[in-house]
Amino acid sequence: MNISLNYLQETFKGQFEYALLDDLAKVGQQKIVPTGAYLIRPGEFIRSVPIIIRGSVKILRPDQEGREALLYYLGGLDACAMSLTCCLGSRRSEITAVAEEETELIAIPVDKVDEWLCRYSTWKQFVFQTYQKRFDNLLTTIDEVTFHKLDERLLTYLQKKVQSCQCRELTITHEEIANELATSREVISRLLKQLEKMNKLKLQRGKIEMVGA
Amino acid sequence: MNISLNYLQETFKGQFEYALLDDLAKVGQQKIVPTGAYLIRPGEFIRSVPIIIRGSVKILRPDQEGREALLYYLGGLDACAMSLTCCLGSRRSEITAVAEEETELIAIPVDKVDEWLCRYSTWKQFVFQTYQKRFDNLLTTIDEVTFHKLDERLLTYLQKKVQSCQCRELTITHEEIANELATSREVISRLLKQLEKMNKLKLQRGKIEMVGA
DNA sequence: CGGACTATGTAACAATTATCACGGAAAGCC
DNA sequence: GGCTTTCCGTGATAATTGTTACATAGTCCG
To answer: Which H/E stretch holds residue B134?
Structure first.
């Protein structure tokens, strides 16, 4: 679906110059993907760079045994750096991207991504800012895994999820959490119970309600 | 120190166009840093992007308690993506970079890094390739930490070190390894002993000789 | 040679995480 | 309601990693 210029102006107010918005409206494809939809899987080629307008997308890193560790979330006006490198280097994806909720995005064709780099300084800025953010995300992820214990990691995991969903009540199973933290369901269940006793959260079947800040 | 055009031509044969080499020779500062020298520390600003010509540089990620986990190594013709993002966003460094051996590099002033992006397509390629490589490095690091046990990590750590040093006999203490894998010296000593019994390596004071492929 | 310092070995124990083996509770479905 | 499936709780036990506490051995240097 094509996009209206007005809509883009509102969305990217102040961030992109007019001519760029104009181009964006011409070549950008608007897509709305439902919760749970896969935007990309490992091994696939990427033919366009998505910019998230609304909703959120989680980026997972798979290993050989079917586990998929969470790397980070993409939210409003984020773009995926992986897709950038993949596009500009025409390589296959090494990650999985899944819509956490209904997500609206604009897909930019590869060749435009490159072309605009030199034409629009705001686009160049955007691209490099994207790289910067993703680098930060990965570094933070590494910090978590290398320096923190599982109970802390679980807590920040849940907190990030709350942020990304804008909602204290998370609909998620212990199994799924375990997968994204690359551990086992039993361990997560135990730690969750522990956190519940500490009044950090409340457990229900398939749901976790976060308490306090 | 300034650099001779001839030298650059040899070094970047086929990778950079002539005019770019010419510019590189004009504004690039050649530096030779000794083993153990810090190229950058967390919190510092970066005023130039280094391209490694010879030698190797390790990139470490510090936490609050003084530990510094190894992220990856930079080697011949690598550039640091962190420095790129730092430069282009004028942010402080979030990592430490240390010369593993005597290392020769060319420092490119920030403004040129940006300017050349649109002027020289080979430079643009180089910059994006750099981002891509660093992303890969970080993903590999994350794989290690999330999916592998310490003994495996130790082994690949040593193997990478062999690669980076081009030498089977590593001059390193258990303490240092422990630091870079974010664990304690005793644990490393134990695992090393274990690996020695499996004939994967031979231990001497301050040295580790890797055996086999 | 005699400290002083650094690096390593190692036992013993604690904490954390992983696995196995269930049982039971909730939800979905005829 | 009864059956099935999914999700969760939990004990028992193992494996891995972290900590404490020393002992020993090499190196440096006077």
So the answer is: helix B121-147
Verify if strand D has an atom below 7 Å from the CB of B186.
yes
Phi and psi (nearest 5°) for B173? -100, 160
Structure tokens at A40: 């990309």
What are the domain boundaries of chain A?
Answer: 5-145, 149-210
Mind listing the pLDDT tens digit for each residue in A10-44? 888 889 999 999 999 999 999 999 999 999 999 99
Q: Supply the pTM of this predicted model.
A: 0.94
Nearest to A81 among B94, B124, B135 (CB): B135
Residue of A nearest to B130 (CA): A85
A152 sits within 7 Å of strand C by its CB: no
Which CATH code fits A149-210? 1.10.10.10
- CA(B115)–C1'(D9) in Å? 61
By 3-state DSSP, what share of chain A in percent is helix, strand and coil, each rounded to 5? 45, 25, 30
Task: Evaluate the CA torsion angle A198, A204, A206, A210 in order and state its sign.
Answer: negative
Chain B closest-CA separation from residue A146 CA (Å): 7
Quick: pLDDT tens for A159-202.
999 999 889 999 999 999 999 999 999 999 999 999 999 999 99
Residue B83 structure tokens: 């420095």
The fold of the A5-145 domain, in CATH, is Jelly Rolls (2.60.120)
Q: Determine contact, residues A57/A99, Cβ cutoff 8 Å.
A: yes
Nearest C-alpha in A relative to B131? A85
Residue position matching structure tokens 């690669």: B163
